[in-house]
């Protein structure tokens, strides 16, 4: 299967941990695109993720079109449901919520989204998605009706991650939940990284450059940040986060 976006991610990983900037489509106002989007590559962002577990934006497709116009990097859908499949993305993290046992999020939504993914010719990147409990409740857990795996159950987390690899997933994504109070602990990341040979994506609750750097040093292949970059719209934070993760991320020059 031809996977140009996946190969681009792997290529970027060769020169350091990748940085994925998660955009919430519910927060996009098509009349006011974020001026940082166009400069993201300059600051070492590897790709954009776009998605939400809620999707309350009545102008969802306009929002996606707006992001497509200004985000000059691979645009990867990170969907909460099949209804978010959009023709304006390059690829999709084709998620299976393997930490839970809700068939809708293991395979149901995936089957619903499949015809559009095929018709729009969107690249599918099969991803084993694991919710990890770091102490706060997450909207993904609520929406999916599933429980995250406690982060002190490291063996269970590792078994799920390796199961994802055995199922043929191209990535494992450990998720603390958007806006989580605490990111996933470095000891968990280290153990999971040693358990698998496919790339490891870490997201949820990463707010500061020091945290991003710790997560990268613990073994994340890709670090995802969303909320922090919504709350602080400065290029300084974007530059500090990316350069904490990627040695090639450049310091900001306003
Ligand atoms: C959420 O992992 C992502 O799905 C990013 O989380 O919004 O907390 O950065 P934050």
Structure overview:
The protein has a single domain (4-245), classed as FMN-linked oxidoreductases (TIM Barrel), CATH 3.20.20. By secondary structure, the protein is α/β, with parallel strands linked by helices. It contains 9 helices and 9 strands. The structure holds SN-glycerol-1-phosphate. Residues 22, 175, 178-180, 203-206, 224-228 line the site of SN-glycerol-1-phosphate (1GP).
Could you write a compact summary of the structure shown?
The protein is an alpha/beta fold.
- Counted up, domains total 1
Strand content: 15-25%
The CATH class turns out to be Alpha Beta
Biggest sheet: strand arrangement: 1-2-3-4-5-7-8-9
Topology:
Layout (H helix, E strand, L loop, with lengths): L3 H10 L4 E6 L23 E4 L9 H11 L4 E3 L13 E7 L5 H17 L3 E11 L5 H6 L4 E2 L3 H13 L4 E5 L10 H10 L4 E4 L5 H10 L3 E4 L1 H5 L3 H11 L9
Parallel strand pairs: 1-2, 1-9, 2-3, 3-4, 4-5, 5-6, 5-7, 7-8, 8-9
Helix pairs in contact: 5-6, 6-7, 7-9
The structure holds SN-glycerol-1-phosphate.
SN-glycerol-1-phosphate binds next to strand 9 and helix 8.
List keywords for this structure.
single chain; 254 residues; alpha/beta; TIM Barrel; eight-stranded parallel barrel; 9 strands; 18% strand; binds SN-glycerol-1-phosphate
């Amino acid at each position: 299967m031809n996977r140009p976006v996946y190969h681009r991610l792997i290529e970027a990983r060769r020169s350091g941990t990748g940085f994925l900037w998660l955009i919430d489509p519910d927060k996009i106002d098509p009349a006011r695109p974020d001026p940082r989007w166009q400069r993201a590559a300059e600051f070492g962002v590897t790709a954009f993720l776009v998605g939400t577990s809620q999707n309350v934006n009545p102008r969802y497709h306009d929002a996606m079109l707006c992001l497509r116009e200004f985000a000059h990097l691979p645009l990867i859908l990170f969907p909460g449901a099949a209804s978010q499949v959009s023709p304006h993305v390059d690829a999709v993290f084709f998620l299976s919520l393997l930490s839970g046992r809700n068939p809708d999020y293991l395979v149901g939504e995936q089957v619903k989204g499949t015809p559009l993914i095929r018709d729009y010719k969107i690249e599918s990147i099969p991803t084993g998605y694991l919710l990890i409990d770091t102490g706060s409740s997450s909207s993904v857990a609520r929406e999916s009706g599933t429980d995250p795996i406690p982060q002190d159950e490291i063996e269970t987390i590792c078994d799920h991650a390796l199961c994802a690899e055995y199922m043929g997933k191209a990535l494992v994504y450990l998720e603390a939940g958007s806006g989580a109070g605490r990111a996933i602990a470095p000891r968990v990341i280290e153990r999971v990284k040693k358990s698998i040979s496919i790339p490891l994506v870490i997201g949820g609750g990463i707010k500061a450059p020091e945290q991003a750097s710790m997560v990268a040093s613990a073994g994340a292949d890709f670090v995802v940040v969303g909320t922090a970059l919504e709350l602080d719209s400065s290029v300084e934070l974007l530059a500090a986060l990316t350069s904490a993760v990627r040695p090639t991320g450049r310091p900001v020059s306003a």
